[in-house]
């Protein structure tokens, strides 16, 4: 595990995303699981798409892990399965589904991820 940022995802900058990208690209691992706040997960996923030859799965929680009924554990479990079975590329594992960052958005009002 490599902690990179400890920020609310609303405050992640382009420079922060580049740091995440560079850190992942420099690792020898070919399968990478990234936990990330859901508010800007899609934007970070788009940046990570520039990394070749790795399977990168991002996940988070629509309800924080400290709350009863959080989806954090479920999403992490889904992401673990996805990172082990998908071909190289970048994916978002949320709501029991696997998404392409270029084809998904967070619907804040409905508190879910959905196709664009």
Question: Descriptors for this entry?
Answer:
116 residues, Rossmann fold, globular, two-stranded antiparallel ribbon, 6 strands, 30% helix, alpha/beta, four-stranded mixed sheet
Describe the 3D structure.
This protein has 116 residues and is α/β, with parallel strands linked by helices. The chain is 30% helix and 23% strand. It contains three helices and six strands. It is globular and about 35 Å long. It starts with 13 loop residues before the first helix and ends with a strand.
Shape: globular
Alpha-beta classification: alpha/beta
| Strands ordered across the widest β-sheet | 1-2-3-4
CATH architecture: 3-Layer(aba) Sandwich
* Tally of DSSP helical segments: 3
- Give me the strand/helix succession: HEHEHEEEE
Number of self-contained structural domains: 1
Helix share, percent = 25-40%
Global Rg: 13 Å
N-to-C CA distance: 32 Å
CATH superfamily: L-asparaginase, N-terminal domain
DSSP strand count = 6
CATH topology name, in short, is Rossmann fold
Q: How can the largest sheet be summarized?
A: 4 strands, mixed
- Indicate the proportion of strand residues: 15-25%
